[in-house]
Amino acid sequence: MSLHDLIGNSAASGGEATVFAQPWQAEAFAMVVALHERGLFSWAEWAQALSSQLKQSDELEDPSDYYQCWLAALESLITEKKVAPKADIDLLTRAWQRAALATPHGQPIRLENDPDRV
User: Fold this and answer.
1) How far apart are CA 25 and CA 70, in angstroms?
2) How does 82-95 read in b/e, with b if 16+ C-beta sit within 10 Å?
3) CA-derived radius of gyration, the chain
4) Mean pLDDT on 7-32
5) Angle between the 64-80 and 23-37 helix axes, to the nearest 10 degrees?
6) CB atoms within 10 A of CB 74
7) N or C: which end of the chain has fewer CB within 10 A?
8) Do 70 and 82 form a contact (C-beta atoms < 8 A)?
9) pLDDT at 5 over 90
10) What is the pLDDT of residues 46-73, one digit of tens each?
11) 13-22: long-range contacts at Cβ-Cβ below 8 A with a sequence spacing of 24 or more?
């Protein structure tokens, strides 16, 4: 059974609980699944990386903190596997943050909206 089937069956059964509170959480989830499917890491490696991040955060004060741990675990695997250095990830993160601030409310955030992007 695929993820699509599971989600479809959940919605069809009248389940009202949302899986993700914010769209970025779904995107983080999808990135992890896609990179696993491409062979970047095994599920055991992912479980170890996520577990390590969750232990570091000690107590999750906000439910979105859980997906912050997902991002941190993904970043650690990306750097560990030498896909991209942390400095590049940090630069791109700041560019997205600037793009978000420069994007009018209700519009999609696009990296080209970063005022510092050349």
Assistant:
1) 9
2) eeeeeeebeeeeeb
3) 16
4) 72
5) 30
6) 22
7) C
8) no
9) no
10) 999 999 998 887 766 776 688 889 999 9
11) 20/67, 21/63, 21/64, 22/64, 22/67
* Contact in structure between 52 and 41 (CB atoms under 8 Å): no
Helices (H), the chain: 3-12, 23-37, 43-57, 64-80, 86-102
Residue with tokens 């170890």: 48
Q: Which residues contact 102 (CB under 8 A, 6 or more apart)?
A: 113, 114, 115
Phi, psi of 20 (to 5 degrees): -125, 135
Task: Record the tokens describing residue 107, joined without a space.
Answer: 């519009």
In one-letter notation, the amino acid at residue 11 is A
Alpha-carbon distances, residue 37 vs 2, 32, 69, 91, 115 (angstroms): 13, 9, 20, 26, 35
For residue 50, the tally of other CB atoms under 10 A from its CB is 19
Q: How far apart are the C-alpha atoms of 99 and 93, rounded to whole Å?
A: 10
